[in-house]
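Cross-posted from the bioinformatics board.
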Amino acid sequence: MEGPGARAAEALRDALAAVRGARSLAGLREAEIAALGRKAPLSLLKRQLGSAPPADRPGMGRILNEAREAIEAALSARREELEATEESAALEAERVDVTLPGRSRLPGSPHPIALMLERLCEVFAGLGYRVAEGPEVETDWYNFESLNMPPDHPARSMWDTLYVDPSGGRDATLLRTHTSPVQIRTMLAQPPPVFIVAPGRVYRRDAFDASHSPVFHQLEGLAVGRGITFGDLKGTLDAFAKAVFGPEAAVRLRPSYFPFTEPSAEVDVICVTCGGRGCAACGRSGWIEIMGAGMVHPNVLRAVGYNPERVSGFAFGMGVERIAMRAWEIPDIRMLFENDLRFLARFRG
Amino acid sequence: MRILLSWLREVVPVEAEPEDLAARLSMAGLKVEAALRTGVGIEGVVVGEVLDVRDHPGADNLVLVGVDHGGGRRDVVCGARNFAPGDRVPVAVPGARLPGGIEVGARTVRGQRSDGMLCSARELEISEDHAGILVLGPDVPVGADVRSGLGLDDVVFDVEVTPNRPDALSVVGVAREVAAAYGLPLRVPEPALEETGPLATSIAEVRIEDPRGCPRYLARVVTGLRIGPSPWWMRWRLLASGMRPVSNVVDVTNYVLLERGHPLHAFDLARLRERNIVIRRPRRGERLRTLDGVERVLDRSDVAICDAERPVAVAGVMGGAETEVGEGTSEVLLESAYFDPARIGRTARRLGLRTEASIRFERGADPEGVPAAAARAAGLLARVAGGAVARGAIDLYPRPARPRRITLRTTRTNALLGIDATSAQIGRWLASVGCRVVPGRGTLRVEPPSFRPDLRAEEDLLEEVARLYGFDRIPATLPANRQVGALTPAQAGRRAARRALLGAGLFEAQTLSLLPPWLADRLEAGPDDGLRRAVRVANPLSEEESLLRPGLVPGLLLAARRNAARGQASIALFEIGTSFLPGRPPEEREEVAWVLAGEAPRAWHCAARPYDLFDSKGVLEALASALGVTAWSVERTVTPDWAHPGRRASVLVRGVPVGFVFEVHPRAARALDLPARVVCGSLRLDGLLGAASEVLAAAIPRFPAALRDIAIVLGEETPAAEVQELLRRAGGEILESATLFDVWRGDPIPPESKSLAFSLSLRDPERTLTDADADRALEGIHEAVRAAGWSLRT
């Protein structure tokens, strides 16, 4: 039977085959025109609908609509398929070598001395200390005399001093041999209590070798107030050692001599390499000397106008290079001043 | 100070193991740096007597020595000649072992058979002396094993003595600490003295004309001496203590110095004019040849020991060569004195002579120990050099030192140390180190011994109490501190600057603050350059470290140079630190500086290129941005003269110069073996931080901006900043920003001209700009550009 129903069914079959067979979005567009365009068989049948017997019209109309909907659904499904394929092909074409390095300027590295100074200052900031600074060219008075070292004091020979202008007695100018003048300047500028750390560069008339440098860094601390004891010094240094060297660290104070403190002590920290049993790193003693400390000498308090009967205090001072060398196993102090980029790059982060 | 254990045990009967002793001494303030066992590893080394010494036929610097070590003659080749037939020396026979595991064998040296070897002190590891063979002295038995027979099995403590404790620079002094630490008795060797013949005062005469320089002078006279080598026991103790035996008379003075810490000097009495000793200030230009052979001009501040005519010793430092004890000496004047510590210290420093004597006098000898030291030495001279000690001593002590009396408060002691001791306990501790203690009410009256110059005030005794109590027994506490730790704005700013520069990819450097003068020459710095006018250190150790840096860039250039020499192709360094400007005192500035040299970091996504000025400006921009500094600008400048003349600019913050950015002159870079393009920058940190703005939570604009591009063609000479400034003025408030994004030269731009392209952002904070508004604003800018004589590129 060659009726319109049969032709519609045939047109639908052809159209669906063309849509499903389309290989690209362009081919799909062609199939769409062929199936639904003005010249498409279904369109023709629709136009002929008016000339069909009235009783057939509703049935025929429904068949044509259903055919159209089926084709549109197939088109839409196929379009999605083809779009997905084409997009993935396009993305595939953009594939890169993911192992190539990224585009960025890497940050530089801090210098180990600056890094260590920052750490040390943070430890003491946590204990309520402020950071105080002062000039590197000092006078004889600030560097020696106010610190209980009058002219000709034998202890002056403990430091080989670089002078800028050696004349002028107490006004003679020199490169400070320690950051202790900052303690004096701070105490002269404010009444007690004083809790400060003084980081900075210091100078000695030393030739460069593995453990000496004419220029190096110190961090000194000073605590002055009512009722401060030698026990407080011990407790403070113990807290410091644990913060810097780890919770297992312990300190030991040995009697020593500095003109500006009394009692004076050398401070040892337990050797981290052997845990105090004695090894090559600590000269078999189990302890490593890290700083000097003591109770501020009454003459120093008097020199700044404090009354040693009313206030007392302690001071301590350490070589930052020495601590850094210990912490990072740096064998030679000269490495810290060569600024070799390969060395500096070790201290990232 | 080297302390021999067997000697120490003679003075204090301590049985403790050397390790324990070392630890106790360290905790008492006498740090034992090392405890060395002597004699270890010596096997089969015996005493031999030199029979004859002949030249080696095949070598000028060798001799053939015939020795007898009890088993007949043996011939040994030797490189030293410091001995003669009859001397006794250590002979290592074949099969013997020396410290360090060296085994001695028979061998042939230049055709001569050597049947063993003679040993130096260093080869036996008993001292550093390697100048010759160790001559043992006539009293050692031939054939004896040197290790067991000569007492080499011993321990030497290397004790670090602090400058306040001259008393501990002796065996007796260290023994006193041992006695206090272990609660043992002290047995100081008593001078065994037999005086004979005439009175010393009848033989010699002493006069003090400088009682301040020399408060006490005691002389003894010993006659009938026979100069020769000292006995082995004395030589061994000197050697082990680091001294070199010389002759019996000199050795005795050194022995007493080591034993009691009191320096002595022996003059050849026959050479003292008129047998006189006068202690006085030197006269102008007076000279003296000291024992070390150096001719020295004395100074008025020295203390001179003179005879009737001339100086014969620099008091407390070194004796004179003219009156030195030598082979022909038969009578000596033995000096035991006390000199002013400050004067001796000054002289020793002035002469650059630190001797065993000067170290002790400078730190303070014991004025009351003067007679005992002299008596001890005289007794030993009689014993080891056969001398006759004249009766009595010439002892001048015009104003004896009064004993010091110090009051020590028990409450203050406890309060300052954080302990809880009774007066009685404190008194006992102080008595254990020789103090006389009288208890009072809550106080102690303490008279320290004369050999403790460090105990002068209450705080000194307080330290002594802490030391004797034991630092390790004092409980650890924390002080009450109500202050909040914080950084000052300048410290926080410095930290922010560091972070910014690290973030910009630069590596932080720490260069020396001391520079060499040759740097200015290499850079061809002009006479006004900071490097030429840099502050000089008055007493530099070397020229390399003689100038205080006038800025940080030169030191960074040296660091860059070292990196370039080590093959670094890309160098980026910065430093924050102090620079010094001439002045009295020098002016100090905190500076931040950077140096970029070689290639910018190479990557696959951009072409290789050398650093140039704009990298340096980029660092500046990063820094200013991180610190919140907006009011800055740069302008061309003419300094430094070692900069590229076309690529140097001064940096201004709020119109005030605070530093520079520049490329180093290629010639200067070449002279420093640096890559051709080296760029740098330096800024005063205070100048920068002074303009830093606080963060304000400013409103984010609510209305959109209109973006327009504009390209301006103008003469090559006109700086971009000028165009920028014109745009800013012409744009008015509506022009939010003008960002330069392209610089173009060449076709189609006429020669000697350039095109600068800006991206303009126009915004009205109150409303949305219409296209018409934006075009009107742009037209105004176009007019201003044309009015400036520039043209617009379309």
